[in-house]
Design goal:
- A three-stranded antiparallel beta sheet has the order 2-1-6, with no helix packed on it.
- It is built from no helices and six strands.
- The termini are close together.
- Strand 3 (21-27) and strand 4 form a beta hairpin.
- By secondary structure, the chain is an all-beta fold.
């Protein structure tokens, strides 16, 4: 699946598209997006993520 992730970094907003996501985990204070093989493809601190949406 493909996801749009909006992240806050101070006053700056970062809009990312992450493709090929197989699984999303929340672990050790972070969102962890893995591909279908279980490889890490994206991570962001839990308190910086504004939203994650399937696109």
């Amino acid at each position: 699946m493909n996801y749009k992730v909006l992240i806050a970094n101070g006053d700056k907003l970062i809009d990312r598209r992450v493709n090929g996501v197989g699984e999303i985990e929340v672990k050790d204070g972070a969102y962890i997006l893995l591909n279908r093989s279980g490889d890490l493809i994206f991570t962001a601190p839990f308190d910086s993520v504004i939203y994650i949406a399937s696109v």
